[in-house]
Structure formats: C-alpha cells, structure tokens
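task queued by scheduler; priority normal; single chain, no ligands, no partner chains; default sampling; output format set to structure tokens
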Amino acid sequence: MSDSEIMEVTKKFAATIRETDTYKEYLLQREKIKTQPELYDKVNEYRQKNFDIQNESDSEDLFDRMEAFEREYAKFRENPLVEDFLQAELAFCRMMQDINVLLTSEIDFE
C-alpha cells in the first residue's frame, strides 16, 4: 500500500470518527457554549490554566496546585453549559487517546 493510499484511508477513518455519537455530542455542546462568547472565553481560560498546570515540569506540588485550581473553578463548573461542554470534550479526547493507543499497539513502533 502506498503512502497516498494510507492518507486516503485515514481521511475515511476521520469521516468515521465524525459520525460517532461522542464526536457529535462534543460538537453539539461546543455550539451551545459558543452562543455565549464571554462564557466560552472563560472556558478557554480554564482549559489553558488546566493544561499549563498539568504540563509544568515541577510536579512536586502538582496535587496541591490542582486542588487549588479545582476549588477556584468549582462554582464556574456548576454552570450546566460549562460542565456539559467539558464532559463532552473529555469523552472525545479519551476516545482519541484510546484510538492512538490501539493504533500504536497494533504496529511495531517503539
């Protein structure tokens, strides 16, 4: 199989992913939250802070920093639009991670 054939199969696989309930739910929740631009901006700020905390090299106080972060945003997460979007996004990310793990395990790649 040629590289171009692999790319074509990959495009078809991406189309299949777009048909999953998980992806459709993510899109639905994303569109709902985008109807409130200020709230969407705050969600993006939350996501960026979460990413930054989890990817800092100093993991010594990670647990404490994550606890403080979660306390800071607890009331924010009570908003159903926020929580529904974040849960849908998490489900989609986990599906993509599972796909990546499975794909990597099925080929001889170190």
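post-processing summary
- Residues 80-106 form the longest helix (27 residues).
- The chain has a mean pLDDT of 94.
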